[in-house]
Design goal:
The protein is mainly alpha-helical. It is built from 13 helices and seven strands. The model has no long low-confidence stretch (mean pLDDT 97).
């Protein structure tokens, strides 16, 4: 699929990541990081143990263990997974993001080791995710209502949840219970209908009447505004629908992934650096490297499903973004803990273009996909 030159570039870049992560993993062995402060990982394994990104560090460790067989990575991943047990006993700490938390940790562990405790954790998380399903609207509710906030989020769903559905697909298979799969398929169908616009751009948030399931409106969420095109949401949709196709073989999901991908490709800037929102004002230059890394993963998987020219188009777009990230948006200093720079959580946040752990995870995953050495986590 890759040319010899592309294979060599991917392997050399992966080797650089592995060399750096050997040191970073030792320094952060007992942490669950989200970002870096002055080049040092923070730690969300204390009061912020329920933070939605807390599975990605464990996911990096399982990917590195799968690649190298180095036991230290496995020990770090197992410690991270065990720390997350506290969240399983915290109703308000559980959310639509259970897939992000337990697929890269407990489910990855079970895939590699068949550890029954990990199977139990994954199924508990899947059961809680399934419990958020609204039978009237056929959608999985996103957030709980937030303290001291007047907004009622009872009927809200978000595009991000497409990446959490694989937890339900996995649970349906492992528990031999079709209810999990049915919920995932129904949510994906609702997302396809109400989130994905005709041109392949996507909404971040859609609000439904929680009692009747009737569509109410959409919100801009973490993008620029309502009707805009938040790039990480595009990436979640691109990769998420590709994964739903892989799990179900529903061709409608594949066609939707292609539509989102084609829109994404049509809007990649010439320099390959991805903005926070494809429709942000021209004078705004805020980037989100995580959107590039996530989209690259989705495009690589999508390229495997295509034939001929279209496969090459998707693969070359992924390579363009990854190459630019490696050359311009990677911190290769082995004494600092992050890989990607210029990551942004949301357009309207006060802080932009910093390091975020899921950017590092998806960058690593994309490189592993290119050299065909990744652990399938999703």
């Amino acid at each position: 699929m890759l040319t010899q030159q592309q294979k060599e570039w991917a392997q050399e870049t992966l080797d650089r990541v592995v060399r750096k992560m050997e040191k970073v993993s030792r320094r952060s062995a007992h942490k669950i990081p989200y970002t870096t402060v002055n080049g040092v990982h923070d730690d969300r394994s204390g009061e912020m143990i329920s933070w939605w990104t807390n599975g990605f560090w464990g996911g990096m460790m399982w990917q590195l263990y799968h690649l190298t067989g180095e036991e230290s990575y496995r020990r770090i991943a197992e410690e991270s997974e065990e720390k997350l047990d506290r969240v399983l006993m915290d109703y308000d700490g559980m959310s639509h993001d259970n897939g992000f938390t337990w697929l890269p940790t407990a489910v990855a562990d079970y895939r590699v080791t068949q550890n029954p405790a990990s199977r139990n954790r994954g199924l508990l998380a899947a059961g809680m995710l399934a419990g958020r399903y609204n039978v009237n609207g056929n959608f999985i509710r996103a957030w709980n209502n937030w303290p001291n906030d007047s907004a009622d989020r009872t009927g809200w769903a978000i595009i991000d949840c497409m990446m959490n559905l694989p937890l339900l697909y996995w649970a349906g298979e492992v528990a031999e219970d079709p209810r999990f799969t049915q919920i995932a398929v129904n949510h994906a169908a609702t997302t396809m209908k109400y989130f994905v616009r005709g041109d392949g751009s996507v909404n971040h948030i859609v609000a439904f009447d929680p009692c009747t399931g009737e569509y109410q409106c959409s919100y801009g969420g973490q993008g620029y505004k309502e009707g805009s095109s938040w790039t990480r949401g595009q990436s979640w949709g691109l990769y998420g629908f590709t994964l739903s196709y892989l799990h179900t073989k529903n061709v409608d999901f594949l066609r939707t992934a292609e539509r989102i991908a084609n829109y994404f490709l049509a809007n990649i800037p010439e320099d390959g650096l991805i903005p926070v929102d494809f429709r942000q004002p021209e004078e705004v230059s805020i980037e989100d490297s995580t959107a590039a890394a996530i989209a690259a993963c989705g495009l690589i998987e999508l390229a495997k499903l295509e034939e001929g020219r279209q496969s090459k188009v998707y693969l070359n777009a992924a390579l363009k973004m990854l190459t630019v990230l490696a050359e311009k948006r990677c911190n290769w200093n082995e004494e600092e803990d992050n890989l990607l720079t210029h990551c942004t959580q949301a357009y309207h946040d006060t802080q932009h273009e910093f390091s975020i752990i899921y950017g590092d995870y998806y960058f690593l995953e994309a490189l592993l996909k290119l050299v065909e050495k990744d652990l399938f986590i999703w």
